[in-house]
């Protein structure tokens, strides 16, 4: 019963701003129990999003408001200032993540509008490769592309290629989709920009930017092992060649360059100036806005002088790219961070941290985080770990970064990439077609963990100050 209770609480993220005895103890009160039930109910609705078609942000945003309202009501006569301070702290946590992701999403949308990803799709479709060559090439690109773009965008781009060249061959499309999910998640684990969890770890200061790259080889192993196991089961033969021509729009290469400059600015702000990475990203947004002004004026001029082709020219508008950001995802983060912050304020943090990182030990706990990520979104799980602030070595922080990033590959519903492909490749890729390869993916996960312990053994002796 104790293990079950701790596992349930372990799924709940907690903010570090607990009540510290400055008000009523809500952890054993009706408020605490109701808060947990509200959060669990909201998260069940999130997991059923594809079934009930209710956007995931709606239940968690409501849950966040209800949980904090109950806390504030309970503290109204004792220490309302503590509640206000804790809530503001959590909103600041969200604001930094929100601004960072908003800029990244804006750049990705701008690249999509400039036909960068369509050009990649057309180029690969026209190579005339074999099934097995395309399997490896799409996996290779997914691995490295997800280190810059997020795993969701990477998966959506690559699955369009697979569906375009696959010719309806289920024996090729299904395992290739699995390979894309695994590679995209693995590629995001060694880069601060590859996954929300790595971004959170970087922004929290637990791992510096360049230190993530020691996870490169373990991430490669994680993707390579299941790919090697799947390879003999792929069909032989040559794919149908698609000679579609796609031209990138004016300014596409310069936007790619500006995106790289934006990443460099964010890294510089954090590493050199000790400023939040979000401040660097917002500075990088100004790069795009200024270049967008040039593109807008240029294309507006073309529009005025090309009346016969007025429908072919749409002036670039950076604010349209901002509006096209994944607002449901951004608001989901708001709901998660605030809801779990409320649960942390109530006081469940110490019990969970003591059991997971005290009794079970950091290695077991961090591996469990990866397994939990296959069922529960890795964002609240990682936020829980960061908020607990367990005393563990640098190598353990890298371990939990790795397992949280790649653990979701075990199931189709365990990551945003897998969920996206369930919709895009419906009829070819399914929960059970992914489950067929789960043992191979688990072997890759185990191999990557062993590889990390072997290659980065010295980091397990280093503790953050």
Automatic annotation (TrEMBL):
It comes from Oceanococcus atlanticus. GO terms for biological process: sodium ion transport. NCBIfam families: NhaD_1. It is found in: Membrane. GO terms for cellular component: membrane. Its main location: membrane. Residues 1-18 form the signal peptide. Keywords: Antiport, Ion transport, Membrane, Signal, Sodium, Sodium transport, Transmembrane, Transmembrane helix, Transport. This is NhaD family Na(+)/H(+) antiporter. GO terms for molecular function: antiporter activity. Residues 43-405 form the Citrate transporter-like domain. Belongs to the NhaD Na(+)/H(+) (TC 2.A.62) antiporter family. InterPro entries: Cit_transptr-like_dom (IPR004680), NhaD-like (IPR045016). The chain crosses the membrane at residues 28-48, 60-76, 91-108, 120-137, 143-165, 172-193, 213-234, 255-272, 278-295, 329-347, 367-386, 398-423, 435-455. It is a multi-pass membrane protein.
């Amino acid at each position: 019963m104790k293990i079950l209770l701790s596992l349930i609480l372990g799924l709940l993220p907690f903010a570090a701003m607990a009540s510290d005895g400055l008000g009523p103890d809500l952890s054993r009160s009706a408020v605490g129990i109701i808060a947990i039930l509200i959060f669990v109910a909201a998260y069940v609705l999130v997991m059923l999003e594809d079934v009930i078609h209710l956007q995931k942000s709606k239940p968690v945003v409501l849950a966040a408001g209800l949980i904090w309202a109950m806390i504030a009501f309970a503290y109204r006569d004792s220490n309302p200032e503590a509640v206000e301070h804790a809530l503001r702290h959590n909103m600041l946590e969200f604001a930094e993540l929100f601004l960072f992701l908003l800029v990244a999403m804006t750049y990705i949308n701008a690249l999509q509008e400039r036909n960068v990803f369509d050009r990649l799709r057309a180029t690969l479709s026209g190579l005339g490769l074999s099934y097995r060559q395309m399997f490896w090439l799409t996996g290779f690109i997914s691995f490295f592309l997800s280190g810059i773009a997020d795993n969701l965008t990477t998966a959506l781009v690559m699955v369009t290629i697979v569906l375009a060249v696959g010719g309806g061959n289920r024996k090729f499309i299904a395992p290739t989709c699995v390979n894309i999910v695994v590679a995209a998640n693995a590629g995001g684990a060694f880069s601060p920009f590859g996954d929300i969890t790595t971004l959170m770890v970087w922004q929290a200061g637990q791992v510096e930017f360049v230190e993530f790259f020691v996870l490169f080889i373990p991430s490669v192993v994680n993707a390579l092992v299941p790919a090697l196991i799947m390879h003999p089961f792929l069909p032989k033969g040559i794919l149908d060649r698609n000679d579609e021509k796609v031209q990138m729009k004016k300014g596409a290469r310069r936007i790619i360059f500006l995106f790289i400059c934006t990443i460099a600015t964010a890294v510089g702000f954090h590493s050199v100036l000790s400023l939040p990475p979000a401040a660097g990203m917002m500075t990088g947004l100004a790069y795009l806005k200024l270049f967008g002004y040039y593109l807008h004026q240029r294309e507006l001029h073309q529009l005025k002088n090309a009346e016969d082709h007025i429908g072919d020219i749409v002036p670039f508008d950076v604010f349209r790219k901002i509006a096209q950001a994944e607002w449901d995802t951004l608001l989901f983060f708001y709901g998660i961070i605030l809801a779990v912050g409320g649960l942390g304020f109530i006081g469940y943090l110490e019990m969970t941290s003591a059991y997971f990182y005290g009794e079970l030990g950091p290695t077991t706990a961090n591996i469990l985080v990866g397994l939990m990520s296959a069922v529960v979104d890795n964002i609240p799980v990682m936020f829980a770990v960061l908020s607990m602030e367990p005393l563990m070595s640098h190598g353990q922080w890298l371990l939990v970064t790795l397992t949280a990033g790649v653990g979701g590959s075990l199931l189709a519903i365990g990551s945003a990439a897998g969920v996206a492909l369930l919709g895009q490749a419906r009829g070819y890729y399914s929960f059970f077609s992914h489950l067929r390869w789960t043992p191979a993916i688990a072997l890759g996960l185990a191999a990557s963990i062993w590889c990390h312990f072997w290659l980065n053994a010295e980091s397990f002796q280093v503790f953050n100050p």
